[in-house]
Amino acid sequence: MVPINLAIRFIVELVAVGIFGYWAWTVAGPGLPGWVAAGIAIAVFVTVWGLFLAPTAERGLSRTQKDVLGTAGLLIAAVALAVIGETTAAAIYAVVVLVNIGLLYVLRDEVARVLGNAGRR
User: Fold this and answer.
1) Predicted TM-score (pTM) of this structure
2) Is pLDDT of 117 > 70?
3) Is residue 121 part of a domain?
């Protein structure tokens, strides 16, 4: 069950990348400004995620801090989706994020074992 939930978490993270890109493109408008904005939004999200929030990131955050801040970042993606008018998709995405993190929390000891205690301080 843990590998499935970790796979879902990874998919949810990838979807967040797409959401931030779509949000930035929609806000900036079509054409070059939209593509530039989407690229910047994706680059910022991926950089912050990779440096601080990924399970294997080594930037001084505890596992719990990574989980809380990571979930907040994913829920911000849901808000971004809602802001551009995609409220149903945003609600579905938010529910998937919350159910997934809830299951990962319940299974946290097994998750830590599967991840090899990555990021635990």
Assistant:
1) 0.86
2) no
3) no
